[in-house]
Amino acid sequence: MSWSWPWSRKATPEAAEPRNLDGLIRWRLRYTGRVQGVGFRFTVRGLARECKVTGWVKNLDDGDVLIEAQGTPDQVSALTDAIKRESARERTWVRATLATREELAPQQEQDFRIVH
Predict the structure, then answer these.
(1) 68-110 tens-digit pLDDT
(2) Quick check: is 20 catalytic?
(3) CATH of domain 22-111
């Protein structure tokens, strides 16, 4: 009889195969403006998932929001365009301005999440 830890997880086929990072870009984006307390992180998460972008979004102590977005150049561009459109809508609390953009090395990721 074999015994194993009850919380041990076996690797799933998706987790066992590394994702091909060729052709992906990763940007660190810092947004300023009215971006905290207005649902901006949740909006970004929804937009990122629609654009098939992975990464994360989090509030910063200084009132800005930091995003790391990864995908094809078209996907990441679609996300930044969607954020710009959302900020320009007449009926939104969000008023986000892209302050900085920095290129990073792509990472192994599966989804887009909110980080606290």
Answers:
(1) 999 999 999 999 999 999 999 999 899 999 999 999 999 999 9
(2) no
(3) 3.30.70.100
Strand order in the sheet with 112-114: 95-104, 25-34, 65-71, 54-59, 112-114
Interatomic CA distance for residues 22 and 39, integer angstroms = 33
How, if at all, do strands 112-114 and 54-59 pair? parallel
What is the C-alpha to C-alpha distance for residues 32 and 111, in angstroms, rounded to an integer?
24
Here the tokens at position 41 are: 């992180």
Task: Give the three-state DSSP class for 74.
Answer: helix
30 included as an active-site residue: no
Element (H, E) at 48: helix 40-50
**pLDDT tens for residues 17-72?**
445 688 999 999 999 999 999 999 999 999 999 999 999 999 999 999 999 999 99
Domain boundary assignment for the chain: 22-111
The structure's pTM equals 0.81
Task: State the residue for tokens 């009215």.
Answer: 34
The active-site residue, picked from 28, 34, 59, 113, is: 59
